[in-house]
Amino acid sequence: MSTIYIDFTEIGDYEDFYTQLKEKIKLPEHFGDNLDALSDVISGELEMPLHIEFVNLSVDQLELFEDLLITLEDAEDEVENFTFTYFLEQYEDEDEEIDEQ
Question: Which of 16, 37, 38, 81 could staple 32 via S-S, CB 3.0–4.6 A?
Answer without folding.
Answer: 37
